[in-house]
Amino acid sequence: xxxxxKQWLELGVGGAHNWQVSDETGDDVYWDPSVRxxxxxxxxxxxxxxxxxxxxxxxxxxxxxxxxxxVVLLLTAFSGAVAQEERSGVSxxxxxxxxxxxxxxxxxxxxxxxxxxxxxxxxxxVRFVARPGVxxxxxxxxxxxxxxxxxxxxxxxxxxxxxxxxxGISATWPRLKRVRFQHYVRLEQRFExxxxxxTFTSSLRARYRLQAEFSFSGFxxxxxxxxxxHAEPFFTLAGNAGQVDEQLRIGLGAGRNxxxxxxxxxxxxxxxxxxxxxxxxxxxxxxxxxxxxWLRRLTTDDG
Length: 303
Fold this sequence. Notes:
The chain is mostly beta strands.
């Protein structure tokens, strides 16, 4: 899928998932042939001015171009080739968040999210989230920091408490009339306890979220509809033994501004996660969010 914000600029997004459908054979196969590979791909790319001649009959602004183009933006995130003997499970989840923020005249913010997550059709667990933070501009970037608290009530088994400080930096580039791209890099320190015997685990990870947002009204203040596509890979830097480790999220959402101080948004997201990379699970979650601002109108969905 692609859009043409300028006569000379095409921005597109694509995705794919590959499955191995038959067992591997041959004398060189020393592993279990019943273990089949899977690979996921999400790609955001752009094409700039033409560098070489085109064939007019095969080239269209709204079709695949056979021209040689200058690539101006390319990001590819792989969940990786995954081999496993059996699936760890697929879950469908519901996430609900309320996101308040207070902004002063210098665009410094106190922000956060309060909400819960649970399984759809099954109440085996519910997870409560409270994650306050502060954010402010530094040149073309915005620096953020805060601390999240997560408490998971399990119907069977011990409850889990996690405390998660985070530090982040974000930027919006490029900014076009109806499309803008938001980049958000975050470091997280995860401290987790099982409440039955207070077993402690910890890890350090990084995550990078790329979000493309399309506004039907050109990001004018007031009520407007927006479509959002986002991808977020995760990178474990240290620790992690025994912790659920998210690896990749890809989502599509839609939102609407209600005046200049409230935004409603719904997302459908696919997530690859597991206790380690080679034993992943697929999770799908439907997420509803309410953003509400005070003192200044809402500008971004960072947080």
